[in-house]
């Protein structure tokens, strides 16, 4: 999951937190492993506050790779303990989604919270909307 353009998207919701936060918690309750993959330098992502959302956080500023480099997707899958083909990557930039697909992941191009959640529920066959 990308940080800036996806995770913090509030969509049409008027709530205290973006709707994808609840979706990530639901995914984890269903046994899905989650990761944050961002081209952030490490100073912008509030790690302790998001500890309940992600099993792994990969920030390009802390590695030698950045999206859409194939290696950062492979690194993220490895840190999750998964093969790339077992991963679904969500980003608002098509170039990054193509990078994930080139690494073997399923890519979801985020255009709206509602559409992304519907697509993820279909892919994982679990309810994610709260």
UniProtKB/TrEMBL annotation:
One of its GO terms (molecular function) is hydrolase activity. Keywords: Hydrolase. SUPFAM superfamilies: HAD-like. The keyword Hydrolase applies. InterPro entries: ACAD10-like, HAD-like_sf, HAD-SF_hydro_IA, HAD_sf. PANTHER family: HAD FAMILY PHOSPHATASE, HYDROLASE, PUTATIVE (AFU_ORTHOLOGUE AFUA_1G12880)-RELATED. This is HAD-IA family hydrolase. It comes from Solihabitans fulvus.
